[in-house]
């Protein structure tokens, strides 16, 4: 995980909309357990979403519109019990 993200454990909203060069590494979001909103829309380099999402038990909204290279989501949504919008 990038060093900066592990220190953002109280972060609730994260919009990475239009980060066209963003590549998601394995557990980049795993420490963001209070995250309620995650927007990856327009992140065209994202190919895979890894298991780190499993820890996002507070996540209510996940957006990934126009992630044109997204091929796999390697996570189970069982732990994301508050998810309302996908």
UniProtKB/TrEMBL annotation:
Lineage of source species: Eukaryota, Viridiplantae, Streptophyta, Embryophyta, Bryophyta
Top-level taxon of origin: Eukaryota
Protein name: Uncharacterized protein
SUPFAM superfamilies associated with the record: L domain-like (SSF52058)
């Amino acid at each position: 995980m990038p060093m900066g993200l592990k220190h953002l454990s109280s972060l609730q909203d994260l919009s990475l909309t239009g980060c066209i060069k963003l590549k998601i590494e394995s557990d980049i979001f795993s420490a963001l357990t209070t995250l309620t909103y995650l927007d990856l829309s327009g992140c065209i380099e994202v190919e895979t979403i890894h298991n780190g999402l499993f820890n996002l038990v507070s996540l209510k909204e996940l957006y990934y519109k126009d992630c044109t290279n997204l091929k796999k989501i390697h996570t189970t949504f069982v732990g994301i019990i508050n998810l309302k919008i996908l």
